Amino acid sequence: xxxGPAPVPAPPGEQDGRRRIxxxxxxxxxxxxxxxxxxxxxxxxxxxxxxxxxxxxxxxxPADAVADAAAGALPGTAAGLRPVVNATGVLLHTNLGRAPLxxxxxxxxxxxxGATDVELDLATGARARRGRSALAALLDAVPAAEAAHVxxxxxxxxxxxxxxxxxxxxxxxxxxxLVEIGDGFRIPELLxxxxxxxxxxxxxxxxxxxxxxAAVGPGTGFIxxxxxxxxxxxxxxxxxxxxxxAGLGVPVVADIGSxxxxxxxxxxxxxxxxxxxxxxxxLVTASGDKLLGGPQCGLVLGKEEYVRRLSRHPLARALRxxxxxxxxxxxxxxxxxxxxxxxxxxxxxxxxERARRLADRLRAAGVDAAPVDSDAAVGGGGAxxxxxxxxxxxLPEPYAARLRHGSPAVMGRIEDGRCLLDLRAVPPVQDDALxxxxxxxxxxx
Length: 445
Ligand SMILES: *Cc1c(COP(=O)(O)O)cnc(C)c1O
What we know:
With 445 residues, this protein is α/β, with parallel strands linked by helices. The chain has helices at 12-19, 24-28, 31-40, 42-57, 66-72, 103-112, 132-141, 154-166, 187-192, 209-215, 242-245, 273-278, 304-311, 314-318, 323-334, 339-345, 348-364, 399-404, 431-442; strands spanning 84-86, 90-92, 147-151, 170-174, 180-182, 185-186, 197-201, 220-226, 252-257, 283-287, 298-302, 370-379, 388-396, 409-411, 413-415, 418-422. The protein folds into 3 domains: 14-73, no CATH class; 84-95 and 342-442, Aspartate Aminotransferase, domain 1, CATH 3.90.1150.180; 102-336, Type I PLP-dependent aspartate aminotransferase-like (Major domain) (Aspartate Aminotransferase, domain 2). Strands 3-11-10-9-8-4-7 form a 7-stranded mixed beta sheet, with helices on both faces. α3 (31-40) crosses α4. The longest helix has 17 residues, at 348-364. Bound molecules: pyridoxal-5'-phosphate. Pyridoxal-5'-phosphate (PLP) binds next to α8 and β9. Pathway: Aminoacyl-tRNA biosynthesis; selenocysteinyl-tRNA(Sec) biosynthesis; selenocysteinyl-tRNA(Sec) from L-seryl-tRNA(Sec) (bacterial route): step 1/1. Its cofactor is pyridoxal 5'-phosphate. It is an enzyme of class 2 (transferase).
């Protein structure tokens, strides 16, 4: 049998190092790793040990440092998701999970994560309506809504409305509102997937109330008004507003996208649930994790009759949210200002002051940092074209990759060959962690 070339003997030191690489069981007996195995699970810790052994075998670390390296590389939790400081200047960053939750929402989720009275009335011991206090919070916040229902996301709210209210009948929608949400998902395809038929009216740039009126007939399920949340059509345009559609004798479902419950003065072009319901929408659908600043979910608000048809439809069971979402949503609606709201309303003078202080601190630590003005955006497919004046710390571009690998990871934005750390979406309490992450990234340069 051909054994191939004889192995080249390693230099004596390395050979010893290889022989001395400790066995997995021996490393796992290290008290730090044994404790971590109880907290994170044996598989998670074993993976860190195997990686450290591989590094020792490759000569990257000494063989007697395997346990230290494994302990140092342990993740903070048993899940792979890591905390990231959002210094991109995009408030609702889709790849960073859109809205960050408030402390109030996080605490509510933690409490609800155990056994909790999500469907139980503790006063009587009888079964109670699931999520009733979250629904009550929504109705208190939007008195124009007679009833509310919560599903998994904005897309699920549309699917449920289409299934429960249109069935195989027509949904009348403007050609100017056939929106692709993102990642290749398109609202018209989503609706068609339910079996409903789309009745497109008007043109890309102009659709009048008469176009809708001409399409209404016995085969109509409802009129759908979709807020074009991630693009703008300008020039020779016309669209029908909710008030113009409300008198046509068929239900009007309005997808506002962003989840604003009431008007936001900084974003005058963003629709909100209260205004569109008052204008005559029978149902409003929205996302929970955009401008509302809450957990991923889909809100349905409006007339009792229609909300009930959605919430009692068999499909509602497949789209229902868990207790964690209900807890976070209620705390978002009832609780203090959300991080998203704080970021949106942050005053540019204070952002500049924070950027200056951070840059001073970093320069004192030997980092090539400078405070600069910057443009932030709402993001998450919301408020296209709106520029939020902001401030950033500019670093040499190679920092971007190093900061992504740090702990916490920091996600900045590359602009003109520099790495900008935009502060608008960074809560002020994270400034210190940000400075330490940059200082750590600077080490070894
Ligand atoms: C974001 C958005 C959706 C989809 O909502 P998800 O919560 O992402 O499912 C639907 N319609 C509009 C207008 C949107 O902006």
